[in-house]
Amino acid sequence: MELFLKIVLVISSLLLMLLVLLHRAKGGGLSSLFGGGVQSSLSGSTVVEKNLDRITVFVCVVWVICILGMGLEIKFTN
Question: What are the extents of the domains in the chain?
């Protein structure tokens, strides 16, 4: 179980870094390469940005669950 949590943690950490870098800052970001830069003045965010937000939150939740799981495993394995 510990090996599985470590592998998922490494994968989710790398994916989380990539997803955070894809988000648009004030001047635009890498998300504009994938269609995030095309937006009308009426809408606050595009579908690409909303999906990117959802995926980022999901990966972050997986990351937190892995951290908590490893912490509990370390605490109760003696």
Answer: 47-78
